[in-house]
# Entry
Amino acid sequence: MRILITNDDGIHATGLEVLHTIAREFSTDIWTVAPEIEQSGKSRAVTLTEPLRVRDAGGNQWGVTGTPTDCVLIALRKLMRDSPPDLILSGVNNGQNIAGDTSMSGTVAAALMGTANGVPSIALSQSKNFRAPGSLDWGTASEWGIKTVRQLLEIGWPTPVTPNVNFPDCPPENVAGIQMTRQGERTELVIDTHTRHDLRGKDYVWIAYNGKMSNPPEGTDLHAIYNNYVSVTPLHVDLTHRPCLRMLEEKWPS
# Structure
């Protein structure tokens, strides 16, 4: 099995090293194509207005001056064109990609691009800040990532689906298990803008998360993570809200 690994935290990220450890459980034929610098929150952005640089880092590893989606495109259409991967793993992200965060995630976007190109792809993220600010145990992603990916590969999943895997913010021995979940919805605002002043008295703005917890229903990715379960959510790119579609079809003037 040939595996492509990528991320949105950059080619030097610890999570990418963890992902390589996970991938080695399934293959020795591993290719890395990842952004040169962090590209968090870039969602499915594709760089169309400037050229991209591709740096050969040796050992089937390349750094790309672009987004996670750019990396997957360059891997599939250039670097691995004659030797395409059998599986794409994206992550392990430094922070959760659950609820509304999912649509902004470069980690998830890279996996979606792989799926769109016919390659089975999985997004993996390690949640943090629920136990304490900055808390993050990479051992959880490493140990439970192997278990989760193995199960997914054994069971399989439909072609247009991308499994979105999130690991809870707790030590590996405290993980309660693995749950199949749906995307949740937060009742608390977790992203905000912070205005500060530079040394010349001019304003600048940081966009940041405040990490508030909500009270989600069972069966959601949020509930699973809050209760120390690994969350596996099957995603797809069809954004159609079918109940609304049916309602509009029924009520729209003919």
